Amino acid sequence: MPSTLASFEKEHRFEPARFELSRDWVRGYVVAVEDQAIASLGHVAPPMSLAGLSIRALLDRAALPPGSIHVAQELSFQRSVTIGETLTAKARIASRGERQGWVLMGVAMTVEDSDERPVMEGRATITFPLGPEGGLADG
Amino acid sequence: MVKQTARPLIEAGQALPVLIKQVTQEKINRYAVSSGDGNPLHTDSEFAASTRFGGTIAHGMLILAYVSELLTAAFGERWLSSGRLKARFRGPARPGDTVIVSGRVIALDGARVQCEVEARNQAGEVLVSADAETTV
């Protein structure tokens, strides 16, 4: 069971996660989000699937604290990504603040291709209740 | 090979094509599996009932995928290769909701086009508001 995000401080860098953008996973994602526009563009992945994968890679390393809420999301895409490419997701805690019993955390995420060039960069802002010991809330 | 199917939108004020989606618990569960986001707020009705939301809600990234679909429909491959999005999640989408995604071009700056996009529910409540930018 991974630690939760609540236990990490600003500037913590998570271990990069390498993955193949498999046809099966992309198909499952497209079905889940009912994306009817992407099919006309050929064998490319929906850009938001990269964000989804980078968040999934992060959650494999640190679970969301109970009661977490996704407040905001910034994304920029550098190029389209083809199904079958091998990518690496990186994440770090870019900001962390506490106010009135809640933690506001910014997580910077980058997805790079096999040449280590970024194909997507982003920042997720989440908030979660501060627990009695500065970490987990009761949920 | 990526096909270029975008229709350039060059006039400020021009509306983007509207997208309508129905949110169901089944779709939320499917997204939870695909994304690996097993936050019980989305999938566990008993847990979710004890939160301030009073029930399960859709993942914000699911609603954002709808926003991205609208931008893909409007700008094609250009959105995938040069898009930027700054979104705020303003309200929850719940099972049974109809999500209406709409947007419009607000400015042109050389080859860049700026848009504002929002997702609302059937009651007109804003779920997501976003600023989007891409090349045309």
Strand content range of chain A: 35-45%
Residues in β-strands, percent of chain B: 25-35%
Q: Kindly, what is the distance between the CA atoms of the first and last residues of chain A, rounded to a whole number of angstroms?
A: 17 Å
Largest interface: A-B, 44 and 44 residues
Question: What name goes with the CATH superfamily of chain A?
Answer: Hotdog Thioesterase
Specify the oligomeric state. Answer: heterodimer
Order of helices and strands of chain B: EHHHHHEEEE
Number of strands of chain B: 5
The secondary-structure element order of chain A is EEHHEEEEE
Strand order of the largest sheet of chain A: 2-5-6-7-4
The count of strands of chain A amounts to: 7
The CATH topology label of chain A is Thiol Ester Dehydrase, Chain A
Helix amount of chain A, in percent? 10-25%
Radius of gyration of chain A from the CA trace? Answer: 16 Å
Poorly predicted ranges of chain A: 133-139
Please give the largest β-sheet of chain B: 5 strands, antiparallel
Task: Please count the helical segments of chain A.
Answer: 2
Helix content of chain B: 25-40%
Explain what the structure shows:
The complex is a heterodimer of chains A (139) and B (136). By secondary structure, chain A is of the alpha+beta class. Chain A has one domain: Hotdog Thioesterase (Thiol Ester Dehydrase, Chain A). In chain A, 19% of the residues lie in helices and 39% in strands. Chain A is built from two helices and seven strands; from the N terminus they run E-E-H-H-E-E-E-E-E. Chain A has helices spanning 23-33, 47-61; strands at residues 3-4, 17-20, 62-63, 69-77, 86-99, 102-112, 118-129. In chain A, a hairpin with a 2-residue loop joins strand 5 (86-99) and strand 6. The longest helix of chain A has 15 residues, at 47-61. In chain A, 38% of the residues are buried. The longest helix of chain B has 16 residues, at 60-75. Chain B has a five-stranded antiparallel beta sheet. Chain B is 31% helix and 30% strand. Chain B has five helices and five strands; from the N terminus they run E-H-H-H-H-H-E-E-E-E. Chain B is elongated and about 50 Å long. Chain B is of the alpha+beta class. Classes of the chains: A alpha+beta (139), B alpha+beta (136). The A-B interface holds A 25, 28-29, 31-38, 40-42, 44, 46-49, 51-52, 55-56, 59-60, 64, 66-82, 139 and B 1-3, 5, 21, 27, 30-31, 33-41, 47, 51, 59-62, 64-66, 68-70, 72-73, 76-77, 79-89.
